[in-house]
Prior knowledge:
This protein is mainly α.
Amino acid sequence: MFRKVVLWLILLVVGFLLGFVPQFQHLRKVRANLSAAARELDSCQLGQQLSRIRDAASLTYLEATRKNYGVA
């Protein structure tokens, strides 16, 4: 009985690791790509222009949700 419980616990841990490790590796790759893209975006003029456009759009949305259409 004790051997069965230990075997099931080991199988459970192995199954967890088989699902966790690939997802963790994928997450590391995606984070690396994201940080590289963010660095590239920050280093160029286009990034600054996009930031200004994003900020203006955010303010417009905020004023529109406040029903202040004159300012928006």
